[in-house]
Amino acid sequence: MTMKYQDLVRQIEKKQSFLCVGLDTAVEKMPKHLHQTPDAIFRFNKAIIDATHDIAVAYKPNTAFYEALGVAGWQAFEETVLYIKSKYPEMFVIADAKRGDIGNTSERYAKAFFEQLPCDALTVAPYMGSDSVQPFLTFKDKWVILLALTSNNGATDFQFTGEEKKLFEKVLDTSKNWADEQQLMYVVGATQAEMFTTIRKHVPKSFLLVPGVGAQGGSLSEVAKYGMTKDCGLLVNASRSIIYAGSGHDFAEAARAEAKKMQQEMASLLKEYR
Ligand SMILES: O=c1ccn([C@@H]2O[C@H](COP(=O)(O)O)[C@@H](O)[C@H]2O)c(=O)[nH]1
């Protein structure tokens, strides 16, 4: 099942949620009883997915957590993506890999996530310019999520530089010529809540993938207040605060409880700001 803009809007409406659960799975942070199992990462992810699929609209496995484990890690990544798309095809799957290279190489990255695997979206670093992003955009029903204003402190080093326009504003304005809001989204950190009004001046309709609530301390209500559109336009990600909410045999129930808290807040924010 491909996920178009309106499909995403429908899922948000149906579930009253714009929650993206980040699957940043690390063996040492998992409950101890899973450590010795050969497919520990996939088993952990499966339990989290089964416990949250009805209250989240997206999953975002960050490839670094899987690549760090070599072949076995990548296998767990593949199994996770395939499990989500076969059991819960309505879920939006974002591979957070922050790719982007010369066109010839970007084309291969695109094939890895969009042909070999049924990911719906891929995060892409835009700093090598249009020909580095273009190959991802040739996949018709797939999404590109460009880094715009990231959640980390180092975002000030480059993204806030520039005279008339800051670098992140240039990314937003220039990339609008490459594709529209039906295929392009942007990463904007929740820790940058005061910048959402500015962001919306540049991309009034685009979906924003917003990491940085939970463990990084960003405010969900501020993000919604300044960033929400009539179609919601937000996918707010939380990784560690959800998947490591519990450390015992009931870790999946604990993750669900944490996700449910966020979903309930999201339901009231959708009423207030849309
Ligand atoms: O600006 C960015 C871009 C990406 N991320 C990623 O999102 C998650 C956040 O995890 P938490 O545990 O909820 O802090 C993680 O995969 C980051 O690599 C980001 O945080 N900020």
From TrEMBL:
One of its GO terms (molecular function) is orotidine-5'-phosphate decarboxylase activity. Its EC number is 4.1.1.23. The keyword 4Fe-4S does not apply. Keywords: Decarboxylase, Lyase, Pyrimidine biosynthesis. Belongs to the OMP decarboxylase family. Type 2 subfamily. PANTHER family: OROTIDINE 5'-PHOSPHATE DECARBOXYLASE. This is Orotidine-5'-phosphate decarboxylase. It comes from Balneicella halophila.
